[in-house]
Specification:
This protein starts with a helix and ends in a 13-residue tail after the last helix. The chain is mainly alpha-helical and about 60 residues long. The radius of gyration is 12 Å and the shape is elongated. Helices cover about 70% and strands about 0% of the residues. It has two helices and no strands.
Length: about 60
């Protein structure tokens, strides 16, 4: 997997995690939200280390 593929994969995962987090928040699923947030932080750190600008794609902003 080359650099561009890694970035695309991580961005796709980031988008999906944010969608799940939004649903978990709506349903007041506190434990589920906390688990998703761990993955969200991990992927966010990975994208930041790859110099991806998260300004426009980070909907959760935590």
């Amino acid at each position: 997997m080359n650099g561009a593929e890694k970035i695309k994969y991580a961005m796709d995962e980031f988008k999906e995690i944010q969608e799940y987090m939004a649903v978990a928040r709506e349903e007041n699923a506190v434990r589920t939200y906390a688990m998703l947030k761990k993955k969200y932080v991990h992927i966010k750190a990975l994208l930041a280390s790859l110099d991806v600008d998260l300004t426009d794609i980070d909907e959760i902003k935590e």
